[in-house]
Amino acid sequence: CQLFGYVGIEAVLDQMKIKTMKTGFEFNIMVVGQSGLGKSTMVNTLFKSKVSRKASQPGQEERIPKTVQLQSVTHVIEEKGVKMKLTVTDTPGFGDQINNENCWDPIIKYINEQYERYLREEILITRKRKIPDTRVHGCVYFVPPTGHWLRPLDLEFMRRLSKIVNVVPVIAKADTLTLEERAEFKQRIQEDLKTHAISVYPQEDFDQDPDDRALNDRIREKIPFAVVGADQEHQVNGKRVLGRKTKWGIIEVENPAHCEFPLLRDLLIRSHLQDLKDITHNVHYESYRVRRLNES
Amino acid sequence: QSDDLRNLSLSGHVGFDSLPDQLVNKSTSQGFCFNILCVGETGIGKSTLMDTLFNTKFESEPATHNEPGVRLKARSYELQESNVRLKLTIVDTVGFGDQINKDDSYKPIVEYIDAQFEAYLQEELKIKRSLFNYHDTRIHACLYFIAPTGHSLKSLDLVTMKKLDSKVNIIPIIAKADTIAKNELHKFKSKIMSELVSNGVQIYQFPTDEETVAEINATMSVHLPFAVVGSTEEVKIGNKMAKARQYPWGVVQVENENHCDFVKLREMLIRVNMEDLREQTHTRHYELYRRCKLEEMGFKDTDPDSKPFSLQETYEAKRNEFLGELQKKEDEMRQMFVMRVKEKEAELKEAEKDLHEKFDHLKRTHQEEKKKVEDKKKELEEELNNFQKKKAAAQLLQSQAQQAGSQQTKKDKDKK
């Protein structure tokens, strides 16, 4: 039907925005990787605050747990009126043992437990107005910067996890790779992922329309992002920047010429955060639900 | 797992302030659904008001007054304004208020609303479901058209609204408000509101908990029920064209707030509270329906021993019920099939009997005809015989006569 004049339907967009700002958002992210790859630093850099306590503080004994532990910390952060309840789940002990067989099991168990929790709330007769969402929306997997190929542990983990959660692989501590080494490493990783049919985020199957596909294709070309984390500021050219100071120079974390941290941040937070949540809810949670209901 | 909730301060711009935009962008690409139910007597101006509200012409012919009962007619339209796509469904109550006995008038309306909830519930309970692109047909707003009598609500109105108030967001409006004078209107509105309150009818409350909309919602609520006038015809007022109704004694301007409350209705329904109406429908009315329905089916959250029901049992029970229903339906169909077969058999036997009778009858007729023909044949033969005899006799006579004649001439000759 043709509208002959202004009705005011578009006001519904603002109405929605106001409502969502009032209820706030929840975001749950998991970081997986061997100890010492910079996971906690990365999370602190992403959210520009001391979200995670680093495992290696001066004066503290570093203890590698005997089995994979999962530790979740929740914070409330606010920016320009938008409130976010951020939960970061860390996985100390992953890949640190001599025998790492099935070290992914506690992680898979944790993810499924969150789905189970949500499902139980959803099938109640008297449900809560807003079901608390503890499901993992994104799992950032830290690949050590060997420069060669993905290790069997990486492949096993990503293969299993990408079926139940959005996996975002990153090359950790990328300041040990030159640009050429970085490009080659990425190439080999992409081939490896393709060979083993591991679909990482953003998954091709869930592109909604041609625009979406074009945008995500550009991202897929660059996965995995080569990142460097830093939580200290230094003076560069008269500006304060976040970076790592070394004898041979200062690696600026937010400089796209130095590392791809800005790309990771933009993907996870600025452009695809809602998409991560939607895919978790509409795809991963639904497949868990189907599996669970068919079990009985 | 530690779960302490602490507030953290950010040392720089992170960027998640774009979240509301991310969320809204998703919705714009999918489009919005909005469903309005118009309840009111035939001819009270429902279609015209919808045309006026949405500034368009929805196709419809005026309904007749001799419907045997109330039925609901739903029509869906796609509207687009800038980058917002709206799937609007308007449901009309055809024949409302026309019957002599209106006892059951509210029933089809309640059934329709429940049916939409049921459809959503069924989708939600499916094992393989797709809720995120489900076309939502649940009624988000019910505009109840009150006739401009100037006195009070009709009992039909009270009964109907009471039946609907726990199922849908009711916004009462006074239709054709240009028939009421200003001072009468004020008294009429107060009477209506007090009647609603004293009868415990829960109409939709415009939300006042959000600061941006609290003020406007509060000021608008005072004017309930909105006295509206609808018109799609334009009249020249001053140097502009405006939607209005032209009478010999003056022009009623639809968008003039001194003349009627149309602008207020549009503000409230569309520009300020559309999203809240959708949210209330989903989180309050639908949840209530769902809870009642599931309890009806025998599900409980905790059984008497206060042990929570396991998921399996819940679904097992539902599956058994479903299978039971299927079995019942199958039996019913089988019975009906058997009955039909019997009927058909009887019919065929009848037909067979008929045919036999016809055959016998024909045979008899045929025989009779045959006999008749034979008789006629015999007659004919007899006649023929007679004729032959006569002919033979005549010939004999003729030859005798000839002989006699020749004998005579011979005699004559001899005489000569």
UniProtKB/TrEMBL annotation, chain A:
CDD domains: CDC_Septin (cd01850). The keyword Cell cycle applies. Residues 23-295 form the Septin-type G domain. InterPro entries: G_SEPTIN_dom, P-loop_NTPase, Septin. The keyword Nucleotide-binding applies. One of its GO terms (biological process) is cell division. PROSITE patterns: G_SEPTIN. GO terms for molecular function: GTP binding. Coiled coil: none annotated. Gene3D superfamilies: P-loop containing nucleotide triphosphate hydrolases (3.40.50.300). It is found in: Cytoplasm, Cytoskeleton. This is Septin-12. It comes from Nipponia nippon (Crested ibis).
TrEMBL record, chain B:
The keyword GTP-binding applies. The keyword Phosphoprotein does not apply. It holds the Pfam family Septin. It comes from the Eukaryota. Transmembrane segments: none annotated. InterPro entries: G_SEPTIN_dom, P-loop_NTPase, Septin. Residues 393-408 have a biased composition (Low complexity). This is Septin-11.
